[in-house]
Automatic annotation (TrEMBL), chain A:
It comes from Adineta ricciae. GO terms for molecular function: pyridoxal phosphate binding; serine C-palmitoyltransferase activity. Its cofactor is pyridoxal 5'-phosphate. One of its GO terms (cellular component) is membrane. Its EC number is 2.3.1.50. CDD domains: KBL_like. It comes from the Eukaryota. It catalyses: L-serine + hexadecanoyl-CoA + H(+) = 3-oxosphinganine + CO2 + CoA. Keywords: Acyltransferase, Pyridoxal phosphate, Transferase. It is an enzyme of class 2 (transferase). This is serine C-palmitoyltransferase. InterPro entries: Aminotrans_II_pyridoxalP_BS, Aminotransferase_I/II_large, AON_synthase_class-II, PyrdxlP-dep_Trfase, PyrdxlP-dep_Trfase_major, PyrdxlP-dep_Trfase_small.
UniProtKB/TrEMBL annotation, chain B:
Pathway: Lipid metabolism. Signal peptide: none annotated. This is Serine palmitoyltransferase small subunit B. The keyword Transcription does not apply. It is a multi-pass membrane protein. One of its GO terms (molecular function) is serine C-palmitoyltransferase activity. GO terms for biological process: ceramide biosynthetic process. InterPro entries: Ser_palmitoyltrfase_ssu-like, SPT_small_subunit. The chain crosses the membrane at residues 33-53, 59-80. The keyword Transport does not apply. GO terms for cellular component: endoplasmic reticulum membrane; serine palmitoyltransferase complex.
């Protein structure tokens, strides 16, 4: 079953098979054997038939089983009751107050901060705080070191034992495996540090652009524009700030923004900051979007009935909590029909999706000029930091002059830029193609095994973000702790980041994971899933890993 | 102080051949039974979120639950036959 790349072969052989029908869903697609250089990764690359649109958009969101919903509400009710009991004990001074207390109230001032979520933080989050926000002690590659911490008073304070735990990393956004401290990218970044130091000490517009023999910022933008097949691009120092500070440059009062309901908070912040009106449409629902577009064009402003100046549709390429992919061909058709603009945030999909790693545009095979504003980040797939906006040259020139982050934020640091340049150059070579293939292979294998075992997994089968649902808070904590005991670090998310019912564990697959690591993880998930009965799915039969 | 110091995955693989004497297989059945009870207790803790609470809170909740259930059971055992009989008499 495993096709190993032997060093004796000197050419690439391609074996195509027909795309799988519903009867033979376990058949592999094809085998590609590359000639290997000094790389010793054993992998099997699969080529999917690209023109099969229904195959590309195959997503599944299974409904919550009723007993899981009831038990989750019951758990939160019991936690609430005990929260009230403990708060009563704390307020009546029977028990000591452990959290931070605002001293202004005792001096007669109005309290400085009042967060209504602090009930949740004190009584539910702090009890299991050791599974969140774990400090790491090494570079977050496929395997890394976690600092071990122990709490004597139920997670109010920690003490560090000094040891580190070696764990498989299923939580970092390391899709192409560029988070490494040795290799060509790291060497180039160190040389850049030696040439230019760490900071540019100025904004981009004033004196912050590096150019000597290597033209860092300019080269980055040109490379990026060539990579994405667009006219021009501009890069910023922070991905969140790219969204939050550049949407005001393209939208203003009198515009309408239609955004997906699962959009990231950076997009929502940017929309609010711009002063435009915004409405949400149901997640990935093109009929709802079309209805809202038609209503907006027909009725105009809610009070004055004046037509909107422009309408912008804001979507994300891969949604980080759901694992779903936006329906790009239908969006482009809608956009052309109703003359709206499209802003796509490809934070998790650039580098990770598509045959050449160019993102969702490459995945669906559409023209990159059809999407008006392409946005992405360098944090996830390129192992660096920062964000970019790409599109037509007129748009980018407008943003260069009118963007807050270009004018006021300090420019990107030289080693960070060099890391991105090196990784972009690497992606063009066969070694980069291998990484992309390895990621696609890992993703499909992992997802298929999880679904076959009977777990509920959301999202598109090709997205490297794999959310698996565990509804109850106690099962979430037990899962996380048991995985860590078996040497696998995962990220579990609960209430404020997701809906109350849908607590989940989100696996981020990387090209640096070997098949063996994934098998270790799957064995552990299988064991723990049996122990705490996580196999909720009714569409797929529950099976143990040894039966697959 | 983590709550899971129990070494669950130290499994002793016993061979169930016919050559083994009966007390060894009996011991394995008893062990599996205790494991099953432990698994049931874990399910109770997980489904009611008691897994996240401190030991004294677990004791409090379990005591209250046991008190309510036992009261309901006792009243049912004492009063139900008489109620059912008088209902049958009333409706016939």
């Amino acid at each position: 079953m495993l096709a190993s790349s032997s060093s004796k072969l000197s050419h690439a052989t391609l074996v195509h098979r027909y795309p799988p029908s519903k009867l033979h869903s376990e058949e592999e697609m094809s085998d590609t054997v590359f000639s290997s250089d000094e790389n010793e990764m054993n992998y099997k690359c699969e080529n999917v038939a690209r023109k099969d649109d229904e195959n590309l958009q195959c997503e599944e969101f299974e409904e919550t089983p009723l007993y899981a919903a009831i038990l989750t509400y019951l758990s939160y009710a019991i936690l609430c009751l005990f929260g009230w009991l403990r708060d009563f004990l704390r307020n009546s001074n029977i028990e000591k107050k452990r959290g931070a207390v605002d001293p202004n109230a005792t001096l007669g001032f109005v309290p400085l901060y009042q967060s209504y979520e602090s009930f949740y933080t004190r009584n539910m989050y702090t009890r299991v705080r050791d599974i969140f926000n774990r400090p790491i002690a090494s570079v977050p590659g496929a395997q890394f070191e976690l600092t071990e911490r122990v709490s004597d008073d139920y997670n109010w304070t920690y003490r560090y034992t000094g040891k580190t735990i070696n764990a498989i990393n299923l939580g970092s956004y390391n899709y192409l495996g560029f988070a490494e401290k040795s290799g060509p990218c790291a060497t180039d970044a160190i040389n850049a540090l030696k040439t230019y130091g760490v900071s540019s000490c100025n904004t981009r517009i004033e004196l912050g652009m590096f150019q000597r023999t290597q033209r860092y910022h300019v080269e980055l933008e040109q490379l990026l524009a060539n990579f994405l097949h667009v006219e021009s691009s501009i890069a910023f120092g922070m991905g969140f700030a790219t969204n939050a500070l550049n949407i005001p440059a393209v939208a203003s009062k009198g515009d309408l923004i239609l955004s997906d309901e699962m959009n990231h908070i950076s997009l929502i912040l940017g929309m609010r900051l711009s002063g435009a009106s915004y409405r949400t449409f149901a997640h990935n629902d093109m009929k709802d979007l079309e209805a809202k577009l038609r209503a907006a064009i027909v009725h105009g402003h809610p009070r004055t009935q004046r037509p909107w100046k422009k309408i912008i549709i804001v979507v994300e390429g891969v949604y980080s909590m759901e694992g779903s992919i936006c329906r790009l061909p239908e969006l482009i058709a809608l956009k052309k029909k109703y003359k709206a603009y499209l802003y796509m945030d490809e934070a998790h999909s650039v580098g990770a999706m598509g045959k050449n790693g160019r993102g969702i545009v490459d995945y669906f095979g559409v023209d990159a000029n059809d999407v008006d504003i392409l946005m992405g980040t360098f944090t996830k797939s390129f192992g660096s930091a920062g964000g970019y906006i790409a599109g037509k040259k007129s748009l980018i020139d407008h943003i260069r002059v009118n963007s807050h982050s270009n004018t006021y934020a300090s420019s990107m640091s030289a080693p960070v830029v060099q890391q991105i340049i090196s990784s972009l150059r690497l992606l063009k070579r066969p070694e980069g193609q291998k990484r992309i293939c390895q990621l696609a292979d890992n993703t499909r294998y992992f997802r298929q095994k999880l679904v076959d075992m009977g777990f509920i997994v959301y999202g598109n089968k090709n997205s490297p973000v794999v959310p698996m649902l565990i509804y109850m808070p106690a099962r979430v904590t037990r899962f996380n702790r048991e995985m860590l005991r078996r040497g696998i670090a995962v990220v579990t998310v609960g209430f404020p980041a997701t809906k109350l019912l849908d607590a989940r564990v989100r696996f981020c697959i990387s090209a640096a994971h070997t098949r063996q690591m994934l098998d270790t993880a799957l064995t552990a998930i299988d064991e723990i899933g049996t122990d705490i009965s996580l196999r909720y799915s009714t569409r797929h039969k529950s099976r143990r890993l040894r039966e697959l | 102080m983590t709550l899971n110091d129990h070494p669950t995955f130290l499994r002793h693989k016993l061979s169930y051949t016919y050559k083994n004497c009966h007390w060894k297989t009996m011991l394995s059945y008893i062990r599996r039974f205790f494991k099953f009870i432990h698994w049931l207790y874990l399910q109770y803790l997980l489904n009611t979120a008691l897994y996240m609470l401190e030991p004294w809170e677990r004791l409090l909740f379990s005591t209250l639950l046991f008190a309510i259930l036992s009261t309901a059971l006792y009243s049912a055992l004492v009063f139900l036959p008489h109620h059912v009989r008088s209902m049958i008499q009333f409706y016939s």
